[in-house]
Design brief:
By secondary structure, the protein is mostly helical. The chain has helices spanning 5-25, 39-66, 69-100, 109-130, 135-159, 175-218. It has one domain. The chain is globular and about 70 Å long.
Length: 219
């Protein structure tokens, strides 16, 4: 990973440099016009948020049942990225909604459940930071609960009547929109993978430093 990491970084830079050009060249949506292009960043961010929450939950479950420190480090890194990309979703969504619905926010199933899931992972980070001894396992239980909300958030628009578009929007994109969308989705996924690797490595270094401090105190 160390040798290939600069190559992936370069690839991510290229993808994110080209993405605005592709989005600009994508056709306008008939009713939304220019504002619809937020879609190319909003939905990929949501996809990454769901993936990150799922990784955090699975790693936390491994830590709870097998007490593997490396799993806890991956969970902590993924939780931070869930919050970051979730914030992008919660910011870009209202920007799109103001033009589409005439309001910044609606307390419907998709928006409310997304906000609650995001707050669970914010709480996870707060518990780990300020919870004291045993906070890692308490946070891990919260992460598993947060992960369990991912399928609920995803299917909520298909189960309840909501003003948010259903999950069938992406498969029905026109050919001119489909290419830029999946290009942006790949770019966001690559960025997520790079950030997760760096953050997990940083967490490993932090654990190593703490171990050295403990050894120094014992001498």
């Amino acid at each position: 990973m160390k040798k290939s990491y600069p190559l992936f970084v370069l690839l991510a830079v290229v993808l994110f440099s080209v993405a605005p050009v592709m989005v600009a060249q994508a056709p306008y949506e008939a009713t939304m016009g220019l504002v619809q292009k937020i879609f190319y960043y909003h939905v990929p961010s949501a996809m990454v948020m769901f993936l990150s929450a799922f990784i955090c939950g699975v790693a936390s479950a491994v830590y709870l049942f097998k007490a593997r420190p490396e799993a806890d480090r991956i969970a902590a890194a993924a939780a931070e990225l869930t919050v970051v990309f979730g914030l992008i979703v919660l910011v870009t969504g209202p920007l799109w909604a103001r033009r589409a619905w005439g309001v910044w926010w609606q307390w419907d199933a998709r928006l409310t459940s997304t906000l609650l899931m995001w707050m669970i992972f914010v709480a996870y980070l707060l518990v780990r930071r300020f919870g004291g001894p045993g906070a890692e396992k308490l946070g891990a239980a919260m992460a598993v609960f947060g992960m369990a909300n991912v399928p609920f958030v995803y299917v909520s628009v298909n189960i309840w009547r909501t003003i948010h578009p259903t999950t069938r929007v992406v498969p029905t994109l026109s050919p001119g929109m489909r290419g830029p969308f999946w290009f942006c989705a790949i770019a966001f996924m690559l960025l997520f993978g790079l950030l997760l690797a760096v953050r997990a490595r940083l967490e490993q270094r932090r654990a190593d430093v703490e171990h050295l401090y403990l050894l120094a105190d014992e001498e």
